[in-house]
Each structure stands twice: as structure tokens, then as C-alpha cells.
Write a structure and sequence with these properties.
Chain lengths: 337, 821
């Protein structure tokens, strides 16, 4: 019969209309305030009213949600207001997020603030990997330098992200080797100007680790474990080095004074002895010969080396990491020439 | 608005004394209340952000709760413009024109990084660094893209601003503040803002007098310490393969002269014999589908600097491997005969090469610029073309680290914008030719009479901001009465220079850019690109990652098809209801994608050799539930529309085009299968693990609009079949094993070339790249199905009514991010 198709279609829209009330009845027609109703309707399936009453109600952000990057610091910010305590029943999420939008003034107004301490506790080492991997190149970093020697130190002095270029891809967070740059959940950023407000500087970007642990708990826990592991590795490596040095010292008792200082503290690049430089150079050359990119160069050693990764000790990993970093520094230095 | 933009305007002293005005000011709360809650937005979307804007208007976020979702189709009835997405130079004049047509009071929300300041595409030669260069903006919303809730907050902010205004000071009631129309930008050698003309003239005069050598050099642009090295054209092993040699010998016997030589597995064809060669390939060797045509610039190679690469496939004998051939031409005489006579797909593809590389194709019926405009200065894909914001040949830029101080590229450009003008440009003599050239094309056509009685021919313009063009696409339609006699698609309003930026990016950096091609299908876009690089680096993908790719890919395909059904009904006049139903299930899938990858739209989920994150058992369980609800939604949409008499009468036997014609046009995907051709890349050239799944290639017989619409329903059902098998299969794979090879951000791809293609929801999505062995690609090309399917649009529409053109375009299923790239 002509027109039956239209009637059938209208029946479907009518069903949608009725469904809403049927589902509402389940929650005694009080579904707007009922959390269970909200979860069921916003879940994988579910009938009835689908609307989220933003801004009164907000869709929860999943852990991996990414918006604008931020930087993690160990500098703790005391928050005494119960509305800003995630464990308190009076917790107000919006207020809490707002409290974590910092400016230079806001950091400076904190009791006991000094810039030196702030930088010291900051996780960022200024390695610049985030700015190198950034597809639209929206990250600018100035590496800090020692005021006395003028040599670069592993801290950032300036850090900028241009929000009007950032594509929220999350690569910076994915490839950050020091668990510092992470993707924020704060999407409520609409404002009236962009000239200043949309360039987030070092202070604006930095947020305390407690904030990070609240928005991305699983990742923060993982990061914490990684950092502990790294510290342990470093400690063990230092011990190993000391032990080897001691052995060497006993074996070569006659030239004990000339032995390079195998101390646990990191040797500053400026103070490296010629022997060390030579050793590092050799290590670099050895490294250059082995990796995969040049398969025709030396396939047998590569094949031998392959099974190693699974069985590598933490020391080896650390050593390799250091060698790689040195190699990269050398390559960059070469590029700049 | 924004003539005095502060949200808390004070009443000026001389006005404060005016008794009448101060009395009026007491009415402010009522006056502002009325305006704040009746914001009528203009139906107007530019790019990816527009999809989030549609989602905001749909049921879940319900913009209407703020009195701000009565999307108006005409600027005359609207008072809020949401600039949602990348503003290109080609589109900027249209945006200003629309803004001028809106009555006061009017407000502008700039949505997303691109509209704010150019976004990730800022460096591109066709991108405006922020709509605030041309329009006064009230609220900026950062994000790429802003989530719907972020957009809602933007609207709330605008309402706050309105509530701070006063009747006494608002400019539209004060005679001393003229409310003139804003000057329209002009498309010259680059985009020109009329107020800047004197400054441009002055700088050009200085350049002509020899005071400045390079106009881009003016300013304080940080220079790299060392001048960039001249790039070396890539070379790789080109020892001929046995099969290619044999094929070349066969072809050479058939052709008049030794026209074909062999390099690797590609045939190099002497351009003098290209047409005869093409004829032989098509008719004797049965390579009916010319899938991809693209130009390559080997800057520094002599004698033949330019090359055109053709990828052909056989539809009648699908087991035949790809046949790649190339034709070369020198810099001084860049001419290659057009193959339009053999394959109509060359209409758009050769025009693109002409536009971007400046290679001429004698024999092409209408060799005009396509992505840029007539009169644009230069051919931007040439290796020696540098944009106004050019910094270095390859990323990362040295100005970012270790001495990175933030700067805005426009601050270092003498014009303060992303523009560069040729020094020999004579403003006095110059006339913009962008619009005239379109008119010229239409006038010069020999249009045959379709009707028995005489009527005047009318040329009407649909787009580029028309609500039914699915983005910023323009059709210039010549009508006789209501019947279409000719249709000319005009593109480039969203040309974001994906390929140019892609050749500067590191290999991995292109991954998030592919998200922004077809912003409905980021998972599938990622997959195609990952496949290309995996092919070039010979990376294997672990089994679990392959399953995850199939799951997310097929879910994405289903969502794309379901959304299309909603949009198509919208085009037919079923305003919003089917679309809202479709978007409801889409939202549930996007929630899953967001949980898995971190973003709803721009997933950036795949990596070379795997995927970025593993799926949890819990996620898989919920994905299965969502798949079940997608099944329901598909059935419901089917019931809602398939039997509907209005839908049937509008779509049956409308827009018919034969399979042979479609193949000649290069059309692939659901459109081709709706013409009865069983051609699906998942079957003929299975990638990933598709060969393990049991599914059919559905087809429809008639190749009309109804078949194209119903084809999507059928394909959705096959995707459901694949998903059910994938959910079962993934259970046997070890969790965590998702990455083959190491996760590294600087990969070097061995020198060489490759073409990889996948079955995208819209057709064949192909990626072609040439590597010179560096960390970035020498040539990076996207063969986008939407763009090439548009070839057939004119032939589909001819002879039908103008209202059918809208539906025909809807059934072609284009996404402008992918069309214009």
C-alpha cells in the first residue's frame, strides 16, 4: 500500500519518543539527577534521553584523553579548601581544575617559593625531544645554562607551547623520556583573546604531580614505577662502577693516581679526561656499526646481537641509553657545524 | 560586534548625562537576556571542527538548551557565526562576504586552533593564520578539535559577554560609529587584504628599486645559521625485474617504436608515445582503472626534472598486480600528453598536477587551476617553492631547541600575514581573475540542448558554504528550467597543503595529519599510511595489532556509513531526525575511541608496526556491546528509510551512470559496487589479515542513487560480520603484543618508492611516497577517494533536476578534508 513506508518510519520515531518515558519510569521520573540513569544512558547502549546537561553535568574524561600538553613538577601546592580535595565529598571538579591553572605570579605567591627550588623540583630536563617530535612544531624550549661556566645544564629555562598551533596529537607525551610532558584533561579554555592567553609559558604549563596522578592515575603510577626503576638502575650501576674501579685499582696499584675518577657523581662534560672521550668515541663507533639501518655493513654481528635485547641487564640498557644520548648529542653538534 | 569589545563597557561621560540613555540602560538586563538566549548560528562549517559542531547540535550535547542551535541557512537570519575549522585563503573572501550579510548585532566564535591562528596547518601556503585577521572575533576556543563540551563553554562565554553589554553603548544604535561592511579580501598572486594595498605597493616599489631583494626576507625572521643545502634528488636500485622487462618487450612489439624502458618494476614511457601506450594498457592488457596519477619534482635531476606517475589496476582480471608507469619531461618544456581521452579520471587529477607542479597536459579539455585559484603565483608543490612562513626544508626546525623563544611567524613577515607577493607585481594594471576564469569555463562549454522547448539558461552557484555541500565545496550548475545541463565542481576551499607539509614532516609526524584528511575515518586514514611505511621499511605487524586494526577500522567504517545515511536523509529534506539517530550510535563509538586513543575524532592511533595502545578485555566487551547497538541502529535506519515512498521516488532511477563510465572516472568503493562491480581491495589485494575473514562483497545492480544509498547498508552488515569474527579471533592473541619493531620518533625509510592502498569507507585510499633515505619523505601523495569520486559528479547530475544534485553529491559521500587535502 502506498504510504505504508512512511507510516512505518513514523512508528520508529514514535518508539524513540515513548522509549524516553519508559526509561524514565525506571528511575521514577527523576532521571536527570540519578547517576545510574546517567551512566546507563551514556554507556554502550541504553535508551531514553541521551542529553548531557552541560555545564551542570559533564561527561567524564577517560584517562588517555588528550587536549593540551602540560608539564609535571614535584613542587607541591597546598590546597586547603575541601572543594579542592579530590577525596572530599565537597569536591568541586571545575574549581579544582581552575585552581591548577597557574601563572608566574600565582607560583610566586606560594609560601616559600624560590625560583631555584621550583626549577630543581621540575621534572623537565630540557632535552628537547618533545619539540623535535612535535608535528606542527609548536613547542619552543630554551635550555638552561650554568651561570658560572655557561655550559648547558639539564633543565629548561623557557618553555612555550602555542595553543593556536598545537594539534593535540600527544606525541610529545608519548616520547618524553623523563615522564614530564603529559596531556591535560582541561578542555574548558574558551576565552576572549588569544595574543597572550594562547601562548602557554613554562609557568602556565607546569602543574603539580598530584594533579597528574588524579587525572591519569594509571599512567602516573606507571611513571612512578619507571622512575624508581631508573633510580635503582643508576644506583646499581654506580656501585658496579665503584666495584670495577676498586678491582682495577688493586690490579694496577702502581698507577693508582693516574686512574680516571670512577665516582658515582655524573662527570660534567667539561671535565672529561681524554681517555674517557676516546672510550666514548669508540663506543659510539661500535654502536654505529651494529644497528639495523645498515644491514649490509655487518649482518653477522647484528644477528648475534639480536637475541640480546630480551636478556639485557638494566646496566646494559642504561649504558646503551647513555651511549645513544651521547651519539645524538654528537650528531646534533655535527649538524650545527 | 566587537567594535568595542570589552564585556563590561562603561557608559562614556557625555552619554552618562543623557537622561534618556541612562533610563534606557536600566533595560539592559532584559535587552541582554533576550539577545543572549536567542543566538541563531549560521549553518556554516569549514573543516574537522564543523563535525564537532554538528555533534554539539545533535542530541547528546544539545546546543538548543542554550537557545543557540537554530542553525540558519542564510546569513540574513543569523547572528552568530561559528568559524569552525581551517580558514584557507581561497575561502577567506567568502567568509567575509557572509559576515557582511549578517545583520547587526552579530557575534563570531572562533572554534579550534586553525580558526584561532592557523593551527597545525599554519605554515601552509593556502592557510590564513587566524580568522581574526579578517573578522572581529568575540570568543576563541582552543583545541584541535575542541570537544563539543568545549564549544558549549564557548557559547556560555559569549552569553556572558553579551550580558555585560549596555544598550547605551552598543555600536549598532550609535550613529557616530559607522557599521560599514568589512573590506573583502581579494585573490591576487596571494590573498590581499584591501587595507594593506598601500603598504604592499610601497614594499614592492622598494623591491623594484633594489632596496630589498627578497620580500620574504623583510623583518626579523630568525635565519638558520647555515644556508640550507640543496636537496639531492633520490636515487635507488632500479635493476629491472624479469616480469617488467618481459612486459616492456611485449608492449614494445605492439607500439610503433621503442617507447618503453624499464626501471625496477616500473615502465618508463617516452612521452611522445604515452597515449598509444595508454591505449594498449587499457584495451589489450585490461588495466581499466587508472587509480592514481601524480607528479613528482626531482629538483636537480637532468634532463628530466619532472615526472608523472600512473598507477593502474585491472578490474576485469583483479588478480593482476599493479602496473606502474611514468612519463618524464624537462624543466624547460614541462609537457606530457593528457590521457583524458582514455581515462576521464585525468580530468581532476591532471588539473591538480598542472596546478601544483606547473606541468602542462596538451589534450586536456579544461586545464585550469583546481585547488588554488587562477592567478596564484607559483606552483607550490615544486621543491624550490618556499611558502611565506618557510623555515627549513625538514623538521625539526633549529629555532625550537635548545635556544627556543616563542615567536609568531606573522610577526616576522613584512605584511603580518601568511602572504608573499612577486616583486614584479604591478598593482595598477592588475585585475583579479579568480572568479572570471570560472565564468569563462562555463561560457566556453558547448552545451547541447536537452529540452524540446526554449528556456533561458541560468547559471547558479551552490556553495562553498551551502549547508548541503558537506563542507566547503562549490558547484556551479548551468540549468535549463530545473534541469542540469552542466555542472562544474570548484574545489580547494579546504586545501590545507597536506602534501607540502607532509614532505617536510618526519615520517611519524604525518600520522596525526592523516587524521585530518577524512575526519570521519581517522582510524582508516592512519591504517593506510601505516601500511605504506611498513611496506617501505618491511616491518611486520604482530597478530594482536592486526586484529585491533581490523576492529577499530571496521567500527570506523560502520560509523562512517551510518552517519552518511543520516546526512543523506538530511539532504533529502528529512531534517536532522535520522541524523540524530545516526549520531547517537556514533557518539557511543567515539567514546570507545576516546578511551582507547585519547581523542574522539583525531585518533592518531596507529604506529608503524602496530598500534599505540593495547585494548583491555573490558574495552573489548564494551566494543562488542556497541557493535550490537550499531547493528540495531543500522536495521532501524534501514526500516526508517528504505521503504519510505518519498525516499524511493527521490532516489530510484536518479543519477544513473554505467559501471564502465564510473571506472573511466576512476570511481572506487561503494559507488562502484553499487553499479554491480565486485571490486573490493580487502578481497582482491588483501592487506592486514583480511584474507582470514569470511565476508562477501555486496553489490547493487542499478547504479542509481537508491543503490548507492542501500549499498552502504549492505556493506555495514558485512562489516558487522567481520567484527564478530575479529572479536572472536583477538581472544587467542597474547595481550600486550601490539608493536612490531621499536617505537622511535625518527625513523629513516630506505630510499625507494611505494604505493599502498586500503579499502576506505569511500573507496580506494592510496598513499604514495618516495623516500630519499632521509627522515622525511621526498614525495608524499594521498590518493583520496573523495576527490577522485567527484570526477563523476557532473556526469551523474546531468539531465537531472537541480534538487537531485544535492542528493547525488550526498550519495557520493565526500569529506572535504580529503577532497582538498
Amino acid at each position: 500500500m502506498f504510504g505504508l513506508g512512511i507510516v512505518k518510519g513514523l512508528a520508529i520515531t514514535l518508539k524513540h519518543f515513548i522509549d524516553t518515558f519508559v526509561d524514565d519510569a525506571k528511575y521514577s521520573f527523576n532521571s536527570t539527577t540519578n547517576q545510574k540513569a546517567f551512566e546507563s544512558r551514556q554507556g554502550t547502549s541504553g535508551i531514553g534521553l541521551f542529553t548531557i546537561e552541560y555545564p551542570e553535568k559533564k561527561l567524564p574524561t577517560p584517562e588517555r584523553f588528550r587536549y593540551i600538553p602540560f608539564l609535571v613538577t614535584d613542587y607541591e601546592v597546598p590546597l586547603h579548601d575541601p572543594a579542592l580535595d579530590p577525596n572530599s565529598p565537597q569536591f568541586n571538579h571545575t574549581k579544582w581544575v581552575e585552581a591548577h591553572r597557574f601563572t608566574q605570579e600565582k607560583w610566586e605567591s606560594l609560601p616559600g617559593y624560590t625560583y631555584e627550588k621550583w626549577v630543581e623540583l621540575h621534572h623537565c630536563t630540557g632535552c628537547g625531544i618533545c619539540s623535535k617530535v612535535c608535528p606542527p612544531q609548536c613547542i619552543w624550549i630554551t635550555q638552561a645554562s650554568d651561570p658560572k661556566t655557561n655550559k648547558p645544564v639539564s633543565k629548561s629555562k623557557a618553555f612555550y607551547i602555542d595553543l593556536d598551533m598545537c594539534m593535540s596529537c600527544g606525541f610529545c607525551a608519548e616520547f618524553c623520556p623523563f615522564e614530564t610532558i603529559r596531556m591535560d584533561h582541561d578542555y574548558e579554555l574558551a576565552d576572549f583573546e588569544r595574543e597572550e592567553g594562547h601562548v602557554h609559558d613554562y609557568f602556565r604549563l607546569t602543574k603539580p604531580i598530584s594533579y597528574y596522578a588524579t587525572i591519569r592515575p594509571a599512567q602516573a603510577a606507571q611513571d612512578e614505577a619507571d622512575r624508581r626503576q631508573k633510580a635503582e638502575d643508576e644506583k646499581r650501576k654506580a656501585e658496579e662502577k665503584a666495584r670495577k674501579a676498586a678491582e682495577k685499582a688493586t690490579a694496577e696499584a702502581k698507577s693508582a693516581t693516574a686512574a680516571p675518577p670512577p665516582t658515582a657523581d655524573k662527570p660534567a662534560p667539561a671535565k672529561r679526561t681524554p681517555e674517557e672521550i676516546q672510550a666514548q668515541r669508540e663506543a659510539m663507533q661500535a654502536k654505529k656499526a651494529t644497528p639495523a639501518p645498515a644491514p649490509e655493513a655487518a649482518p653477522p654481528p647484528a644477528a648475534e646481537a639480536k637475541p640480546a635485547p630480551a636478556k639485557r641487564t638494566p646496566e646494559e640498557i642504561q649504558a646503551q641509553r647513555e651511549a645513544m644520548q651521547a651519539k645524538k648529542a654528537a650528531r646534533e653538534a655535527g649538524e650545527k657545524k | 560586534m566587537s567594535h568595542n569589545a570589552s564585556p563590561h563597557d562603561e557608559v562614556p561621560a557625555e552619554l552618562a548625562q543623557n537622561v534618556w540613555l541612562t533610563t534606557l540602560a536600566k533595560l539592559d538586563p532584559i535587552y541582554n537576556w533576550g539577545r543572549a538566549y536567542s543566538l541563531w548560528p549560521l549553518t556554516f562549517g569549514l573543516a574537522c571542527c564543523a563535525i564537532e559542531m554538528i555533534a554539539t547540535g545533535a542530541a547528546r550535547y544539545d546546543q538548543d538548551r542554550f537557545g543557540a542551535a537554530l542553525f540558519r541557512a542564510t546569513p540574513r537570519q543569523a547572528d552568530m557565526m561559528i568559524v569552525s575549522g581551517t580558514v584557507t585563503k581561497k575561502m577567506a573572501p567568502q567568509i567575509v562576504r557572509i559576515y557582511n550579510q549578517m545583520p547587526e548585532p552579530k557575534y563570531v566564535i572562533s572554534m579550534g586552533a586553525c580558526a584561532n591562528g592557523g593551527g597545525p596547518f599554519k605554515e601552509g601556503y593556502n592557510v590564513v593564520s587566524g580568522i581574526d585577521k579578517f573578522l572581529p572575533v568575540d570568543v576563541y576556543i582552543p583545541g584541535c578539535p575542541p570537544t563539543p563540551q568545549a564549544l558549549l563553554l564557548g557559547i556560555i562565554r559569549l552569553q556572558e559577554k553579551i550580558k555585560g553589554q549596555s544598550l547605551a553603548t552598543v555600536p549598532w544604535y550609535r550613529e557616530e560609529i559607522p557599521l560599514d561592511a568589512l573590506p573583502m579580501p581579494i585573490l591576487g598572486p596571494d590573498i590581499v587584504a584591501p587595507p594593506q594595498l598601500p603598504q604592499i605597493e610601497e614594499l614592492l616599489a622598494m623591491a623594484r628599486a633594489g632596496q630589498i631583494t627578497d620580500l620574504t626576507d623583510i623583518g626579523t625572521k630568525p635565519k638558520p645559521k647555515h644556508p640550507p643545502k640543496a636537496p639531492k634528488p633520490p636515487t635507488w636500485d632500479i635493476t629491472p625485474t624479469a616480469e617488467a622487462t618481459q612486459l616492456a618487450a611485449e608492449i614494445n612489439r605492439a607500439l610503433p617504436a621503442e617507447a618503453v624502458t624499464v626501471e625496477g618494476n616500473t615502465l618508463i614511457v617516452d612521452r611522445a608515445h604515452l597515449v598509444a601506450f595508454g591505449q594498449h594498457v587499457r584495451d589489450t592488457l585490461h588495466y581499466e582503472l587508472l587509480s592514481n596519477v601524480t607528479g613528482v619534482d626531482y629538483l636537480g635531476r637532468t634532463p628530466d626534472r619532472f615526472e608523472v606517475v600512473y598507477h593502474t589496476y585491472s578490474i576485469s582480471q583483479p588478480q593482476k598486480p599493479v602496473l606502474t608507469f611514468k612519463a618524464r619531461c624537462p624543466e624547460g618544456n614541462p609537457e606530457i600528453p593528457s590521457l583524458y581521452g582514455l581515462w576521464k579520471t585525468c580530468y581532476l587529477q591532471e588539473r591538480e598536477i598542472y596546478d601544483l607542479y606547473g606541468i602542462n597536459f596538451p589534450g586536456h579539455p579544461n586545464l585550469k587551476r583546481i585547488l588554488l585559484w587562477e592567478g596564484f603565483n607559483g606552483h607550490p608543490m615544486r621543491k624550490d617553492y618556499n611558502e611565506a612562513y618557510f623555515e627549513e626544508q625538514a623538521k625539526p626546525f633549529s629555532s625550537r631547541h635548545p635556544k627556543g623563544e616563542h615567536f609568531r611567524a606573522e610577526k616576522n613577515n613584512p605584511f603580518g600575514r601568511n602572504v608573499v607577493y612577486p616583486a614584479d607585481w604591478d598593482l595598477a594594471q592588475w585585475q583579479a581573475e579568480a572568479e572570471e576564469s570560472i565564468q569563462h569555463v562555463i561560457d566556453s562549454r558547448d552545451i547541447k540542448q536537452h529540452m524540446d522547448f526554449d528556456t533561458d539558461r541560468v547559471v547558479i552557484n551552490i556553495g562553498p558554504h551551502h549547508p548541503s555541500t558537506h563542507g566547503v565545496f562549490r558547484m556551479v550548475v548551468t540549468l535549463e528550467g530545473e534541469t542540469i545541463v552542466d555542472l562544474e565542481p570548484i574545489l580547494g576551499y579546504l586545501h590545507r597543503n597536506h602534501e607540502k607539509i607532509g614532505e617536510r614532516n618526519g615520517w611519524l609526524m604525518n600520522m596525526p595529519y592523516t587524521d585530518r584528511l577524512d575526519y570521519f575515518n581517522s582510524m582508516l586514514n592512519n591504517w593506510g599510511y601505516a601500511l605504506l611505511v611498513e611496506k617501505m621499511t618491511e616491518t611486520t605487524v604482530p597478530e594482536r595489532a592486526e586484529y585491533i586494526r581490523v576492529i577499530v577500522g571496521e567500527m570506523n567504517r560502520l560509523v562512517s556509513h551510518i552517519s552518511l545515511l543520516g546526512f543523506l536523509m538530511n539532504d533529502l529534506g528529512a531534517l536532522a531526525t535520522p541524523l540524530f539517530y545516526a549520531f547517537e550510535v556514533r557518539e557511543r563509538v567515539l567514546d570507545l575511541f576516546e578511551e582507547l586513543s585519547g581523542s574522539r575524532l583525531m585518533c592518531n592511533y596507529m604506529r608503524f608496526g602496530g598500534v599505540a595502545y593495547d585494548v583491555s578485555t573490558d574495552w573489548l566487551a564494551r566494543a562488542e556491546q556497541v557493535t550490537a547497538s550499531m547493528q540495531e541502529a543500522l536495521d532501524e535506519l534501514d526500516n526508517l528509510m528504505t521503504g519510505n515512498e518519498i525516499v524511493l521516488s527521490r532516489t530510484k532511477d536518479v543519477g544513473v551512470l554505467s559501471a564502465a563510465e564510473l571506472i573511466s572516472h576512476g570511481v572506487t568503493g561503494p559507488l562502484l559496487r553499487a553499479a554491480g562491480v565486485k571490486y573490493d581491495i580487502r578481497k582482491v589485494e588483501p592487506y592486514g589479515i583480511y584474507s582470514r575473514f569470511d565476508f562477501d562483497i555486496p553489490t547493487m545492480p542499478d547504479s542509481d542513487l537508491f543503490c548507492r544509498f542501500y549499498q552502504r547498508v549492505l556493506e555495514g552488515r558485512e562489516s558487522l560480520k567481520i567484527l564478530a569474527q575479529a572479536f572472536k579471533g583477538i581472544k587467542d592473541t597474547p595481550p600486550g603484543d601490539i608493536m612490531g619493531g621499536k617505537a622511535s620518533y625518527t625513523i629513516r625509510v630506505p630510499a625507494g618508492e611505494a604505493y599502498a592502498r586500503i579499502e576506505h569507507s569511500k573507496g580506494e585510499l592510496g598513499y604514495y611516497a618516495i623516500s630519499a633515505g632521509a627522515t622525511n619523505a621526498w614525495r608524499y601523495r594521498v590518493r583520496s577517494p573523495s576527490y577522485i569520486n567527484l570526477n563523476a559528479l557532473a556526469d551523474i547530475c546531468k539531465g537531472n533536476k537541480v534538487a537531485d544534485a544535492i542528493v547525488a553529491l550526498g550519495a557520493t559521500d565526500i569529506v572535504l578534508g580529503e577532497v582538498d587535502r
